[in-house]
Amino acid sequence: MSLDFELIHDDVKTRRAVLLFHGMTGSPFELKKYGQYLYGLGYDVYADCLPGHGDKVEDIYTVKYQDWLEFSYQKFEELDSKYDEVFLSGLCLGAVLAIAVAQKYPDRVRGVVALSTTLFLDGWRLPWYSFLLPLGLSTLLRFYYTYPECDPHGIKNLRTRNIVKKLLQKGDVGMNDFPMTCIYELFKLSRFVRNKKLMKKVIAPFLFIHSQEDDLTSPKGSKVVYDAISSEYKTMIVLNDSYHMVLYDNEKDYVFETAGNFLNSHSGIKECVAC
């Protein structure tokens, strides 16, 4: 079953698009409502399963961070060849990949909305012994251990959390744990993206949205990028009533609206083709 999706205005060809990247061990399903909202504003929207994600869970054990990078570059180039404007947005790992694309194509990315940027695993839910994680990752243990996903599943809203838990148990929308190999590659990607020379190349407008109570990754990651990039326009919003999954939590409507306003304010194409 493919969870990839494309929302395209067939009746009137729009000249602007948004490329979405999902989170670690997640799927495009977690971006669906967000994508539909952006589509309603007049953007063609695209989201695909990252390498190692999707039907075959075992694929995650062989994926490298370079695979994620090349996939992201390819998807951006495909859209850049068809549209006048291409915006990026991502959640968790997806936000890190959006930043990487903005580093590689500084003059071509129209703008970026980075949600819960996961450069570090330092959220409040992680156990006290998480500082030992790098030791385990540097050994063969990373091929044999998974870090179980558990409450609160990145969601503060109890009703939504229970719905997501049931979906994860079915295995239809994402993985129910974090393979250590995947975390290992995330850390390597983080080091790659945090390169100061690459950060200085970024000139696209940036919107960072991060929860103060993010259970997986603190706002530190977003702040590191915010301080390092050369973008003339950059803003960071810290939420106070959400956890990691800001697209599904208590402030989701505010996140959608703020992201949409950001895209519209930096788009040179003002007509709403969906109207």
Question: What features would you describe in this structure?
Answer:
There is one protein chain. By secondary structure, this protein is of the alpha/beta class. It is 36% helix and 16% strand. The protein has helices at 32-40, 65-80, 93-104, 133-137, 158-170, 180-193, 196-201, 220-228, 252-266; strands at residues 5-7, 16-21, 44-47, 85-91, 111-115, 146-148, 177-179, 206-211, 234-239. A seven-stranded mixed β-sheet has the order 1-3-2-4-5-8-9, sandwiched between helices. A two-stranded antiparallel sheet has the order 6-7. The longest helix has 16 residues, at 65-80. The model is unreliable at 135-147 (pLDDT under 50).
The helicity comes to 25-40%
Characterize the largest beta sheet: strand count, sense, and whether it forms a barrel.
Answer: 7 strands, mixed
Judging from the principal axes of the Cα atoms, what is the shape?
globular
Which strand order does the major sheet show?
A: 1-3-2-4-5-8-9
User: How confident is the prediction overall: mean pLDDT?
Assistant: 85
Contiguous uncertain segments of 5+ residues:
135-147
What is the string of helix and strand elements? EEHEHEHEHEHEHHEHEH
Per DSSP E runs of 2 or more residues, the count of β-strands stands at: 9
Number of helices: 9
Proportion of residues in extended strands? 15-25%
What is the straight-line distance between the termini? 32 Å
Based on secondary structure, the structural category is alpha/beta
Radius of gyration: 18 Å
